[in-house]
Amino acid sequence: MVLFNLDNFESEDAFNEVSLELVRLFATYTKILFERLKVEEELAEKTRLLEVFSYYDPLTGLPNRRLMEELSKKLLALAKREGKEIAVVFLDLSGFKKINDTFGHEAGDQILKEVSTRLKRVLRENDVIARFGGDEFVFIIYDCGKDCIETVLRRILNSLEKPLDIEGQKVQISGNFGVAFYPKDGEEFNNLLRKADFAMYLAKRNKEHVRFYEE
Questions:
Q1: DSSP secondary structure string, 5-40?
Q2: 17 in a domain, yes or no?
Q3: What percentage of the chain carries pLDDT values higher than 70?
Q4: What letter would DSSP give residue 129?
Q5: What is the reported pTM?
Q6: Looking at the domain assignment, is residue 168 inside a domain?
């Protein structure tokens, strides 16, 4: 709402009808301007949120596949220059589906949020983690070979397997990991991701926690 207060202490009839009409028009245009600015601010905020959601998972706040693919290009280019290894890890949660089916999707969402918090807590600052949907997560672990990744995954697994509380009941999840290495297993992210996914499938099928990709 736009309000104007007109004062004149020299004459009672200082404002004739023309002057008042001009003021009314000015007030109307000013109101329209403010409303337009408000709409533009709301549109800018919505655009910002859409951009955030296009790069981040709305449930967990983790990067999504799109952002992971963009970050991977930079990390792989850096690894090539520095002669470093990169571990690409595909994680599928074990036991999540049963919990989701038993307690419902709302409880399942809370589990995913807690898992995401735990994963971020145990990773190094320069490591990248993304949620690819459902109960699948992908990691890019920079400057990390086989010995290094075994230590990292053991730390992740210990964190995952700590009991969770749902409606007063203690539940537990675990995980199956598939790992592919740059440059040994490939030099392009989607190729490494496919191989890590295949290794994860073999780990899940054979009831193993970790499987490294092998030709």
A1: ----SS-TT-S-HHHHHHHHHHHHHHHHHHHHHHHH
A2: yes
A3: 77
A4: E
A5: 0.76
A6: yes
Q: How far apart are CA 81 and CA 91, in angstroms?
A: 28
Q: Which residues are catalytic?
A: 135
Query: Does residue 60 sit within a domain?
Result: no
CB 139 within 8 A of CB 128: yes
Residues 6+ apart with CB under 8 A from 131: 57, 59, 60, 62, 63, 64, 112, 116, 137
- Residue 144 neighbours by CB under 8 Å, 6+ apart: 85, 86, 87, 152
- How does pLDDT run across 49-82, given as a tens digit for each residue? 545 568 899 899 999 999 999 999 999 999 999 9
- CATH code of the domain covering residue 73: 3.30.70.270
186 and 122 inside one domain:
yes
Q: Count up the domains in the chain and report the number.
A: 2
Write out the DSSP string of 142-164: ES--HHHHHHHHHHHHHHHTS-E
The residue segments making up the domain with residue 46 are 1-55
State both tokens at 84.
Answer: 């470093």
CA nearest to 86, candidates 135, 144, 46, 34 = 144
My answer on whether 76 and 154 are in the same domain is yes
pLDDT of 157-178, one tens digit each? 999 999 998 888 898 999 999 9
In a domain, 197, yes or no: yes
Higher pLDDT, 148 or 39: 148
Both structure tokens of 168: 């007063």
Q: How far is CA 192 from the centre of its chain?
A: 21
